[in-house]
Amino acid sequence: MVKAATQAMQVTSLSVVCADGNVYPFRVQYDSMPTVWVWTIAPLEEANLTTYATAILDNPATTHRPHSIAMDMSIRVSGIYIRNDVMYYQLALTNGSPIDYEIDALQFFIRDKKKTRRTATQETAVSILCTIGNIRQVTATSSNTIVIALPKMTLAEGKYLVVQLLEKNGGRHLLLKIKNKHLLKAIPLPSIH
After folding, report:
1. 45: Cβ–Cβ under 8 A, 6 or more apart, which residues?
2. Which fold has domain 49-188?
3. Domain locations along the chain
4. Which among 161, 162, 169, 177 has a CA at the least distance from the CA of 137?
């Protein structure tokens, strides 16, 4: 509850910090007959997937593993983040060759670690919720950072998450294996409103 000390009170501002960490600014001035006696502060809406993924895009690397390299092209996990039921994977793509790398597909699968002879490999595709960054091309001698949002997951024993990057009309295909121990180190993201 806030009351003016005198009628000659100057116009000022008041910031209210709530338990959830949100800050609400108000302009305050004296009024002998206010029209509003009680102000209800509505909760702010949670930011969407694109907002979180965009915010992560320029984050400095929090990890340098796992990674995969083939013919001067590399893919590396530079951060794994989590917010509610979504995990965000920050991936660094580096092309060290003088030839542009045209991306044909970027896919995610959950696979069995061991493959015995004469048996089919168990493989489950993971749906991508959101993609931020240039996923069409990595130009010659340059790097791209992309952020991919996937549903929250942990992996059963004997399984790993595969990131497969395929080159259009080329042979520089990359396969990145992410283990459960990497997922368990995901960095929680704060609320963005």
Report:
1. 193
2. Immunoglobulin-like (2.60.40)
3. 49-188
4. 169
What distance in Å separates the CA atoms of residue 8 and residue 4, rounded to the nearest whole number?
9
Q: How many helices (H) and strands (E) does the chain have?
A: 2, 13
3-state secondary structure of 107: strand
Find out whether 74 and 174 touch, Cβ atoms under 8 Å.
Answer: yes
pLDDT (tens digit per residue) in 97-146: 999 999 999 999 999 887 666 666 678 999 999 999 999 999 999 999 99
Helix, strand or coil, per DSSP, at residue 89: strand
Q: What is the pTM of this model?
A: 0.74
- CB neighbours of 172 closer than 8 A, spacing ≥ 6? 70, 71, 72, 73, 101
3-state secondary structure of 64: coil
DSSP letter, residue 122:
P
Tokens standing for residue 69: 């390299």
